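Researcher: Structure for this, please.
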Amino acid sequence: MPSSSPAPRRRPLPPAATNTGVAALLSRLRDAAGRASPRRLLLESLALVLTSGLSSHPALSSRLLNSLLPHFPSTRLPALLRLLHRDHLTLLLLSSGRNRQAISLPAASALHALAVSSGHLPTDLRLANSLLSLYLSLGAPDSARRLVSDIPRPNAVTWNTLLRACLRSGLLPSARRLFDQMPERDLVSYNSMLSGYAAAGDMAGARQLFDEMPEWDVVTWNSMLAGYVRSRDMEDAKRMFHAMPERDVVSWNSMLDGYAQAGDVMMARAFDGMPMRSVVSWNVILALYTRLKDWRECLKVFDAMMAVGVAMPNEKTFVSVLTACGSLGDLEKGKWVHGLVRKRWNRLVPDVLLLTALLTLYAKCGVMETAREIFDSMGERSVPSWNSMIIGYGLHGQSEKALELFLEMEKTGPKPNETSFICVLSSCAHGGMVLEGWLCFDRMVRIYGIEPKAEHFGCMMDLLGRAGLLNDSENLIRNLQGKAPPALWGTMISASWTQSNSRLGEFVGKKLIEMKPGEVGPYVLLSNVYAAEWRWEDVDKVRELMKENGVDKHVGLSLVGSSESAEPRVATEEDGVLVRRQDDGAVVLSMLGEMGSNMKLPSEGEPRCRVGRP
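Model: Predicted structure, token format:
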């Protein structure tokens, strides 16, 4: 009779499975991760490793730890270390640069203690150097000094780590002394010291060290190039660039950034001939056109970037493009860009600049509900964020909401600045809120100690002019005198026409002629003031003054924009050819005068006054 086969033996549960401490830790980790978090998969894998007895496997536990650390609370790191095998690879991964954001100083000290107790320190130089870099990145020089004192034979990596730490702290002379005392120097040492000189703006010291170096690589050349660009010395930067034996995308971006900072569009457009482009390359050009307020060209560059499709837009890209869309009032394009932001949201690092650019777009286009949704969703709000919402409400007929938001900013937000008061004063002017505007102006001066500038006076004069309080407005502008720009005087002349105050109009017109005797606009304004009062002799005097100053009034003005240009144009017809002129101020001022003259005309059915001489 055949013997029965023995029953299969059941595998005993590993001791870790009954460890209540491990189970409690895993339970807390699962609660911290949440059900919808992608970290849950990593934590479940960790649970499997711990409960199956595989935590002693160095490769497995180290790789799992490397993936988990960026998502792991640093306060629970010591507890996790007690559960994992303390091998060289695990400790090295913990102290590596990739995982430093998850490690605090107490956790680093615990890691140091574990490395010593497990026998890896002080003999393991790679681990020691990694811990040294970790301490220095956490701003713990005393801990770093104790660690260095225990290292029997520091190598070049140790010295280079200390050298970079000195340079990051801005201690250039101390870094140079350390550099001179180094028993051995490699290319990293020279490049670090060279970069320190360039960052400090000491290009003479950088050049001297560059000439003394036994060898160079592309990092060396790029450090010199960046230093010259940072010093705004584009001539030396250009010579260095052309002398480079090899160039990478960093080299091209440095030159591109230098010309962009100088506002040199023609040289910056050498970008078109770059053999390689990164997202930084595109961002530099986009930021240049944004700074120059060439919004249409900014959008053209962005369209080209999307058409090429090699470099994907990031936060800085979207800030420039959204700013251009908002300034052009191109809501449809802005919504399309907003859609791209949503698609790439998980890959972006959304900051206050990006969210402010988004809400500013909708505020400028009058979609205040969407702007407010974005504003309310912001965890951090900067002063420009508040300002954009305030001026958005004011410009679109919601002055009371603008004032309410300003008061909320005073209570719970950042301290208002000069621009904040310009926004709220302008909002009060648009809403005819005279008393509220005066109170805000008073608070600006008396409580915040902000000295009123021309823009603040301009808002107040607009407010007073709309309310018919030109006597108060005139007192304000007479106190300004030398500080007021032409646009501010233009505001007053517009108000004087609206309120039929010829005396103020005459005063402002003469002031404008004093400021810009070579422009036709002020003469037209003053002539219109006299003509409205039938003061024909004074009109003739203005014409004579124009002849004396060599000023001609050309016929044919156009303020019609086109897709090619949003600039105002002044055209003359000479031999059948239209000649374009750059005279923006004259156009605006002259149009104000013509609008004022039309407002003086009687309505239909009333007797008309004669405009010519009697």
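Researcher: Any notable elements?
Model: The two ends are 144 Å apart (CA to CA). The longest helix spans residues 584-600.
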